[in-house]
Amino acid sequence: MSEGEAGSHPITRAVVAQARAAGVTLRVRRFPDGTRTAQEAAAAVGVPVGAIVKSLLFMVGEEPWMILTAGDRRVDEAALAARTGQPVRRASAEEVRRWTGAAIGGVPPFAHPSPLLTLVDGSLWRYPEVWAAAGTPDSVVALSPDQLLGLGAGEIWPERG
Q: Peptide bond before 158: cis, by omega within 30 degrees of 0?
């Protein structure tokens, strides 16, 4: 594992810069063996899988929505469709890269090329600190759920609990 403030990847630098602009200092941690999945990230960092943030892109109708969910949870697509009144599907790998700038396995929860409507899983508040991808499949950052919510300019869904 190596540590650094921003790393050399442009998306990682954007993640750190957006946080810094909001008064949050992030330390990027890199794991050469990868943190592509919630299980890999949890093992690398040494935390429960639920403390890992999965940044998942869904297409709600024609609009991209970022859903930030705990690593031990699944997004209820039917509930999301009921909430929005629109058809819902997981974004393709091409759509993920287009809307987030990152490849699946390294999608950060914020610092996307354009702001995305963001929903944050209320179950993340089980942990004082959660870990999210920092733009590459081998980099992560730690932050509180409140910081995650603020930096992603999102709302909590489903409710905390």
A: yes
